[in-house]
Amino acid sequence: MPTASSTTTSGRLLSLLSLLQVRRDWPGVLLASRLGVSERTVRRDVDRLRELGYPVQAVKGPEGGYRLEAGDRLPPLLFDEEQAVALAVALRIAAGTGADIEEAAARALATVRQVMPARLRQRVDALEIAAAGPGGAPRVGADVLLALSAAVRAREEVRFDYEPPSGAAEPVPPRRVRPHHLVVRSGRWYLVGWDAEREDWRTYRADRMRLRVPNGPRFTPREIPGGDVAAFLSARFKGSAGADAWPCRGEVVLDLPVTQVAPFAGDGVVEELAPGRTRLVTGSWSWAALAASLARFDAEIEVIGPPDLRAAFAALARRAARAAGG
């Protein structure tokens, strides 16, 4: 049965560990003051933490002190209540990130939940979170993501084989890319980097990459166009080589109430002109795609402009007529 003295010591060790986790260096005299003990007691408590596997290092200097370093194994961690709940929420939504870590996240969540006080377990269990990632999205191994992230930080060129899209006639030769950003979009992970051979920025799906080791030489990074990787990637997905905007943008009036147009307008601009009449300004990567996306509203459409959109509707009508005749 634990004594009052051992309980006090255990509580003080937890307090000491909590302090060491929130600040890099702690002078010994300041730790003693915060814990209400002598510096000698602090030294004994530090030795106990070391015996438990925490890599607490002595810091040299006029005041002396201690620092919690990274070790070669993972010791028990200490979280406050807000951190514990935030960790549980993050583990619950891990399945929607596109990283192949669902099983590990589930085991980690079970471990965290097991040691939570009852009131925190009730808060976590009340969370009804479902992964909203796209169904069937390919998963990416955590080892691949960690290796790419490390290459971005170290500014080392990566070498990899790249799986071509379905239906490609010839295999894609090995690539050499200077990685700049690793980003996730709609449940898929992408590497954005500079391809020196092609002298252009390229985007690669991480699930199609088969990394080669070792990495290539170090490089001096260049600034991504526009300086914002999110805007750059969004523009590339819109088919734009410059600003984050659709290369084909048109204006129409639909014989529909604004309430039936707005939910399907995406990033378009919707304006009610009259009851049952809605103005829509929107874009796409091609005029044919824009005309087809507008035709899905199944209503009368008045094209305000530009002429390219009218021409696309005409071509779409001819195609539809041939399909109907067949």
Automatic annotation (TrEMBL):
<dbReference type="Pfam" id="PF25583">
    <property type="entry name" value="WCX"/>
</dbReference>
<dbReference type="Pfam" id="PF08279">
    <property type="entry name" value="HTH_11"/>
</dbReference>
<dbReference type="InterPro" id="IPR013196">
    <property type="entry name" value="HTH_11"/>
</dbReference>
<dbReference type="InterPro" id="IPR036388">
    <property type="entry name" value="WH-like_DNA-bd_sf"/>
</dbReference>
<dbReference type="InterPro" id="IPR018356">
    <property type="entry name" value="Tscrpt_reg_HTH_DeoR_CS"/>
</dbReference>
<protein>
    <submittedName>
        <fullName>Transcriptional regulator</fullName>
    </submittedName>
</protein>
<keyword id="KW-0805">Transcription regulation</keyword>
<dbReference type="InterPro" id="IPR057727">
    <property type="entry name" value="WCX_dom"/>
</dbReference>
<feature type="domain" description="HTH deoR-type">
    <location>
        <begin position="9"/>
        <end position="64"/>
    </location>
</feature>
<dbReference type="InterPro" id="IPR051534">
    <property type="entry name" value="CBASS_pafABC_assoc_protein"/>
</dbReference>
<dbReference type="GO" id="GO:0003700">
    <property type="term" value="F:DNA-binding transcription factor activity"/>
</dbReference>
<dbReference type="InterPro" id="IPR028349">
    <property type="entry name" value="PafC-like"/>
</dbReference>
<dbReference type="InterPro" id="IPR001034">
    <property type="entry name" value="DeoR_HTH"/>
</dbReference>
<dbReference type="InterPro" id="IPR036390">
    <property type="entry name" value="WH_DNA-bd_sf"/>
</dbReference>
<keyword id="KW-0804">Transcription</keyword>
<dbReference type="Pfam" id="PF13280">
    <property type="entry name" value="WYL"/>
</dbReference>
<keyword id="KW-0238">DNA-binding</keyword>
<dbReference type="GO" id="GO:0003677">
    <property type="term" value="F:DNA binding"/>
</dbReference>
<dbReference type="InterPro" id="IPR026881">
    <property type="entry name" value="WYL_dom"/>
</dbReference>
